[in-house]
## 1
Amino acid sequence: MNLRAPLLLALGLVAIGCGPKKLDSKPPPDMDFNSGPDGKRTGAMRIEVNKLTAPDEVNYDKGDQTDWKMVELRGKPGLLTVVLHWDNGNSDMNVDLYDGMGTNIASSPGPQPGAQEKQLLAQIDQPAVYFIRVIAPKTHDGSIYTLEVKWDEPPPPPPKVAEETPVEEPAEKKPKKVHHVEHHEHASHAAKFDPDSGVQGHIVGKAQEGDGLKLFIDKGSAAGVKVGQNGTVLDGPSGATALDGGSFSVIEVKGDNRCVARTSLHSLGKNNRASINVK
């Protein structure tokens, strides 16, 4: 009996049975299938330094494993502190820091059973935009959490001070007499104040304030000007007569040669002289 054929068949079956097994190429599950845009760095939510963030949540089992945050650091190089606090004491949480290129530059400590807070410290040599990743690392991990980014941010710049508006010197013109007015308030001011009895100066600036004007006059404490004294805007460049309705009151003395007054006038026109009653 020829045994060659059965032998070859048996060897072939053995070779087939001992051949390499087909590898399982199934990809790992995506545990951010239920995350929103902030599940990726490109959708990171902007947060502010030195302020508690609004409560957020990650949960491994619910498919919302990851949250990304973005923060802009300003000022000088310094130490950055990121504090992560979560509510569920039976869960672990991780927080990591990335630079603007997506390179991991700092990570929080590993598992700490029973802990509900982790801190991440990083020396920042170049203030810029940085990214923070909060993650529920494994199954059954998940919790509501709050972040705080502590950074020595420079103070905001001081508000701009309104500049005094210079008043142009008017062309020479003849002084005109004060017209009699029926309005009792204006008439009483004209009767009370004699411009010749006061200290005369130039109005070097003005600013709108409410229904009237704030006047900046080049007379101060050296001329005897005090808060509460009254005066009037003079009509014309020579300052011979009081401008109708141009009465004012000194509200601030700013050194030897400057004071501030308030008037109900809406406009000065070309009038740029004033008289202050310093008696």
## 2
Amino acid sequence: MAEHYPVLMYHGIHDSENDPGQFDPVYSVSLAQFQEQLDWLQDKGYKPVTLSQAEKAGNNENVVVITFDDGDITNFTTALPELGKRGMSAEFYITTDWIGNEFSMSADQLRKLDQTGMVIGSHGKTHQYLNDLGDTEVRTELEISKQTLETILGKPIDTLALPGGRGDQRSRQLAKALGYKRLCTSVLGYNTDKTDPFAIPRIAITRQMSLEAFASLVSADGRMMRKLKLRQFVLGNLKTVLGNRLYERVRARFLPAA
């Protein structure tokens, strides 16, 4: 495994709320931002690969993993062409009840995405936060989403990204029992050969993030990571106080630019 590498978490690529897909004021990055970030990775010699490739990379390889959560239509119409131009790989985690709606990729688009060599994974069935659910509901979220994607693609699905980054030990144990091999979180951090494959940390790329901040995080600038970890700690406490639903209503107010 590469000695120290980041896993980046994207959502949709939107210039404005009028673009196709589901615009989010925090997590939708503009096309110009996305292009600038990919060009920076390329210029600096980073190799965007899949999680399984990163696990096999040598210590001297400068790798990064690009991931997308939810299955927004712009993952296919915008992100895929930009990645393809640069010969980059990425992983896409899909909320299966959203497949084919007006904001999300269709089953046919998922198959085409898979055919390009990109990796498809699960992001739950309905995007409910797993730590809010009972045992039976958690199993349904993880099992049905996995089965749906396997039916569409005709291949095993073995990676899960927790919806909203919310999960607990129960979710991890059940994911393992259902045949998942990797679980991505929203916990900030970098990956090493000691990373638990069922607790993979990622770095959320937000609309407010400058290229300077992006570069600092990818290149493991400790000061920037400490700053964001402090913010995540504060927001984590806010989630505990408000609960998931109320927190979601106010989260944009508490995510200043990085």
## 3
Amino acid sequence: MKHHSHSETERIKLFSDGFFAIIITIMVLEIHPPNDATLHALLGVLPSLLSYILSFLYLGIYWNNHHHLLHATDTITGGMLWANLHLLFWLSLIPFATSWIGRSVGGILPTVLYGIVLLMAACAYFILQSRIIMNEGKESRLAKAIGKDPKGKASLALYLLAIATSFLQPWIAYVIFAIVAILWIVPDKRLQKFFDHLDD
């Protein structure tokens, strides 16, 4: 079923934006200040702060890309709605995974879970992106801008590598998570050109 209404697109944008804001709020509330006013006490909460920063970057990247995808979409289908909810479900688990990895630095299971959540969120985003391209058409400017999606495929491979590495050395997995975030912070020139055109 298709909804050819601009208001439907705005509705899903507003709902998703609010969801992102709630997720970030929940995540920051999990960081508790140290009991003592000393550097040693501050170092005790440093892992939680670092995990929050990394997850905040991920959520910021998802919010930015999600905004652009919906901005490029005039028609909302039922499949897109469910794909969007699927993505938001996995993103909603980021605060839990972030809190656990921050409190259990070097722990195998928390690191594996964090990697699985990121992997599934990436898969969910790919599904949403595919639904939009399917609706917009393979010859649409969006489809051409995304192309074969090399960064998306590389991210999935790196997440799998990080999960596998977690069983051997969680610290290496942390580095891989950071590399993926940096990979997405750097804008894709083709996509940036497309989205700049949309904003004109």
## 4
Amino acid sequence: MLNRKEIEEIIPQRNPFLMIDEVEEYIPGESAIAYKYVKEDEWYFKGHFPGNPIMPGVLITESLAQTGAVAILGMKENKGKNALFGGIDKMKFKKMVVPGDTLKLEVKIIKRKGPIGVGEAIATVDGKVAAKGELTFAVVQ
């Protein structure tokens, strides 16, 4: 289990844009499972939407990307590098994510060639799919 401090040793994101709270497990270069504990006081709920807070789909996608980044940047040869979006494919949003939810984030690296790769990503709440799709990434300095 990695806490936020240990996550920050692997990926470069910081508050308020670090979108994962802990990593349950990861296999460098292969997969990662992380969690985002969605709290009432998240910065984005002030405007999305007042009186009806819903986590934006782009931030669910970012949470998945950061989970995948733990897997890919956890490799020794990628230490100190960054993983950028190269594409978002087949992303579907199936369930609203609201304050109090625990978002389970799972990413499996399904393709890799040099610095480019693809992760199969799925976010769930209480075992129900909130979002899923494929994330293409590029590892850069």
